[in-house]
Amino acid sequence: MLYTVVKKNSYQDSINLMLLSNKVNALDGVTKSQIMMGTDANKGIFKQSGLLTDEADAAEPGDMVVVVDTDDESVVDDVLKEADSFLADLSVKSKGQANKTVESWEEAIEELPDANLAVFSIPGEYAAPELERALDLGLNVFSFTDNIAIEDEVRLKKKAHEKGLLLMGPDCGTGIISSIPIAFTNVIRPGNIGIIGASGTGIQEVSCIIDRLGQGCVHAIGTGGRDLSEDVDAITVKDAIAALDAHAATDVLCIISKPPAPSVRDEVLDMLQKVTKPVVAIFLGERPTAHEGRVHLAHTLEETARIAVDLATDHDVKPCYVEPLAHDVTRTLGRDRTVVGLYSGGTLAAEAAMMVSEALDLGGLIKKRGFVLQHEGYDVIDLGDDVYTQGRPHPMIDPDVRIEMMRDYAGRKQTGVILFDCVLGYGAHPDMAGSLAPVITECLDAAKREGRELFFVGTVVGTRSDPQDYDRCLKVLSEAGALMEATNAQATRLALALKGISCPEPEKGTVEYKIKDDSALPEPTDALMELLDSKPRIINVGIESFNDSVRAFGGSSVQYTWKPMAGGNKRMIHLLSELRKHEEIDDENDRIIERFKQSQPFLVDVVPAKSVIPEINGKVILHAGPPIDFESMTNPMQGSCIGAVLFEEWADSEDEAVKLLRSGEVTFMPCHDVHAVGPMGGITTQNMPVLVVENRVDGTVGYCTLNEGIGKVLRFGAYSEEVIDRLRWMRDVLGPVLSQAIRHSEEGINLNVLVARAITMGDEFHQRNIAASLCLLKEVGPLITEIDVEKRKKEQVMHFLADTDQFFLNVMMAMGKSIVDYERKVQKGCIVTTMCRNGRDFAIRISGMGDQWFLAPVNTPDGLYFTGFSPEDANPDFGDSAIAETIGVGGMAMVAAPGVTRFVGAGGFEDALAISDEMERLCVTHNPAWTIPTWDFKGTCLGIDIREVVATGITPLINTGIAHKQAGVGQIGAGTVRAPLGCFERALEAYCASLGIE
Questions:
Q1: N or C terminus of the chain: which is more exposed, having fewer CB within 10 Å?
Q2: Residues 217-260: pLDDT tens digits?
Q3: To 5 degrees, how large is the angle CA 953–CA 959–CA 963?
Q4: CA 937 from chain center: how many Å?
């Protein structure tokens, strides 16, 4: 039976998950299991494996999906424990590293400002936009990542060329830059040979032979296997040739190519004739009979390396480079016995297939589902092909697929020889020889029992400086029964010799070459030469272990802990990538931010709503959030409406009020449409007193009702007699007294100053307002004493203000509205200018889209509950108080108020700090006027950018009260709620459409 666990928003590196899947599949009771991210490509692998469940199919690309096939449900717990342990171990190892990890390109550049190379090992389906971002940042690119569309490779390589940068890859398995090994690479001694090679094991084989012959390499530039195709037209090869020719420390050029397009091969050969240094080249699949002009042409990788060494040491190039085999062949296999190649390296497989095909006239190489040769039992397979690595680690890392095939082919009666490689170096399995040896012995013993002759013939690709110990690996495999040769070419010759077939190499002379294009080699750019003239400074995007070789040999690197942009949503990735091309957006956003900084909000009055909001006169109810009708409101918001009707005396009873509200006689309107905001239900009617905040920059105003205190209050849906009586007291006493007091001041109350003071005293202005409320009382208290109002009313107001810790919240809301409505007068950029909720919808507005609402279903808060209540009692979130977070306080500034973190269920101070650090990633900058002592005096976050929200998948966190889902009960707790991602994605789509981005 299949069991599925989906861990939301839990991105893990694909290679780590492949290794984890292998560990899980070894657990008792697991029939089979797969752990992968929920991408479309991975769902295809789940389906192919018979493991695609409905839950897995519904997963998002950023979700980690665990599917287990087992007869015992309890085994799933064992799987999850193993997964948690494995991932926790990775985390501990990561924390133990000396170098800092970063989570964005901006952080990476800040940490390593002189970076000159980005190394990628991320899923190919997400790679193109990230590679382009690196190029736009002026970085050369090394793409271990494969599965990138050919059209993207062409476009990106052209872009790199135009920028004077080098794009190595895609599918670039190995590289050496200034003697620093990169990715899956061996430890090669420094030298004067510069290699340009298609992908991975071709470079490894040639460079390792060079090393074992006593010479070394300065550079090995991988180009990717398709660079010499007609589509790509050798863009990277050509740029690398020109650069190495100009590179003073490179004395010999060595070119390694998989079978190229003939026309491109001819272009490259023509270009090589103009190189000022000795050149050796191999175009796998060709059997050159002579060297051409200035270019020495090799047939095998071994010959390539030996010619390069002779050129590098000023020795004459020999006419033939066939070396004697390490093993004498005393008996041969029958004609019906075949040679099979099971390779972890594609270039090694191609070389072996070429030699076997040439010797037996089998028709040449093919490329079909991993096969590079397939002819009547003569099978040579590249086990690193996509068909074998989808959902599984590369065979250089994990021997399981090769072991399975070794057993399969060894059991076939026609198989006579199994050729194989054992690749060492950084990134490779720590003991591949030890893993393969017992299987080789097992297969040989089984064949012997059946009276069959079977040979395993292999080569170790490595050097004596590699971490796996080259000599030990040779010994382990030889003792297991394998016949080991020094090179892949020699191993293939031995395999054919066991069939009684020799592989002579003709002696080569040199023929004249007439250059077809006599133009000079292009001048390499300063950026490219700087890469080759210095040790690489790397931003490593993906597999963390790729840092090891770089740091061990004196390079510098920073680890970018990459996750798919936009949670892997390819539509969003496309839109975000297109938006980056609009450089004016940042300037427009800065203009919006500047308006925030310019704002001068002053509390200037408290007046009846109808006196300043003409739209509210008559039977009109303002409510929180985007537009909604009475029937669609949640129960507590309906309760607030009932209370408002009773307060205004439009009805005499609850039943009459409900009847009126359903009759169509009452108009419902969002507070935000008339420069107003309202907490929770947001219900505001004509005779309710509202705070008036004026933004003195241009007179933009913001209105908000007065805070009622705590307990049973209208904003939480209560409408009992005590609620209505309090509202009428606020109308008749509190409002008028505050109005007179505030107008008695010379200019009103400067709220910027008050907030700057209160934030240093521990307020975040959504859940905690006690300091600000007391500071406000300090301002208005003396004014109240001076106005001509009877003493009893003054005392009532003073006591109410002193007792109402949250009084300033409503002031902050009106203040926020006066700021954002000033910002909204510039309809440019993509800064969030409104966040609000009505119990059904969460809604945002953004600067560039004016009054347009973007909606998504609202969430229910998480938090702490008063005694007797639980999450089952909670109402979905509602209210306009998210205006606080819109302007950077509240949940965005959680670190400012450690005193309330536990009250809202956010844990302790470290949790509050983590939240603020997370919110910082969504914003353009900081507000220098409102600095937070507990955040090293950084200013509050400023300017939520929808691009960052969508790209990171992190949504603003909002501090909020929790209302009971039934009207009349009131507040039952406090907590936090996340804004839903959907409204930001919809805003991004609309904004892109407004810019003509499809």
A1: C
A2: 999 999 998 999 999 999 999 999 999 999 999 999 999 998 89
A3: 115
A4: 29
Domains of the chain, residue spans: 2-95, 101-322+516-568, 338-504, 592-993
Report whether 251 contacts 277 (CB < 8 A): yes
Q: Regarding the domain delimited by 338-504, which CATH topology (the fold level of the hierarchy) does it fall under?
A: Rossmann fold (3.40.50)
Q: With both helix axes pointing from N to C terminus, report the angle between 488-497 and 301-312 in degrees, rounded to the nearest 10.
A: 140
| Matching CATH number, 101-322+516-568, of 3.40.605.10, 3.30.1490.20, 3.30.70.1230, 3.40.50.261 | 3.40.50.261
The matching CATH number, chosen from 3.90.1700.10, 3.30.830.10, 3.40.640.10, 3.40.50.2300, for 592-993 is 3.90.1700.10
Closest Cα partner for 887 from 838, 942, 959, 837? 942
The answer to whether 530 and 516 are in contact (CB under 8 A) is no
Q: What are the strands of the beta sheet with 2-7, ordered from one edge?
A: 2-7, 64-69, 32-37
What's the pTM value of the predicted model, to 2 decimals?
A: 0.81
* Residue 905 neighbours by CB distance under 10 Å: 17
CA distance 767 to 805: 10
Report the run of H or E that residue 572 belongs to, with start and end: helix 570-580
Q: Count CA atoms within 13 Å of residue 192 on its CB side.
A: 13
Average pLDDT along the chain, 998 residues, taken 10 residues at a time: 87 76 86 87 83 90 88 91 80 52 92 96 90 96 92 97 96 93 94 91 96 97 93 97 97 93 95 97 93 96 98 96 93 92 93 95 89 95 85 85 96 97 93 97 97 97 96 98 98 96 91 92 95 96 91 94 87 93 95 96 98 96 97 95 96 96 96 96 97 97 95 89 96 97 93 96 93 96 94 96 95 98 96 97 97 96 86 92 96 86 68 91 95 93 97 93 85 88 97 94
Neighbouring C-beta atoms of residue 785, cutoff 10 Å: 12
Alpha helices in 649-746 (DSSP H): 654-663, 721-729, 735-744
Contact 863, 894 (CB under 8 A): no
Q: Cα(704)–Cα(684) distance, rounded to whole angstroms?
A: 8
Angstrom distance (rounded) from CA 167 to CA 162: 11
H or E segment to which residue 705 belongs: strand 700-705
- Helical pair 346-360 and 201-212, crossing angle rounded to 10 deg: 90
**DSSP per residue, 894-930:** GGG-GGGTTTTT--SHHHHHHHHHHHHTTEEEEEEEE
Domain 2-95, CATH number (from 3.30.70, 3.10.20, 3.40.50, 1.20.120): 3.30.70
Contact 188, 246 (CB under 8 A): no
CA distance 174 to 185: 5
Domains 2-95 and 592-993 agree in fold: no
Question: CB within 8 A of 916, min separation 6: which ones?
Answer: 892, 893, 894, 895, 896, 932, 935, 941
Q: Are 178 and 528 in contact (CB under 8 A)?
A: no
Q: What is the pLDDT of residues 811-860, one digit of tens each?
A: 999 999 999 999 999 999 999 999 999 999 999 999 999 999 999 999 99
- How far is residue 657's CA from residue 655's CA, in Å, rounded to a whole number? 5
Residues 642/646/652/656 CA torsion (nearest 10 deg): -20
CB of 504 closer than 8 Å to CB of 322: yes
Nearest to 896 by CA among 795, 767, 706: 767
Beta-carbon-side half-sphere exposure of residue 355 (alpha carbons within 13 Å)? 28
Cα-based angle 159, 165, 168 (whole degrees, multiple of 5) = 90
Could you give the CA distance from residue 705 to residue 713 in angstroms, rounded to a whole number?
Answer: 13
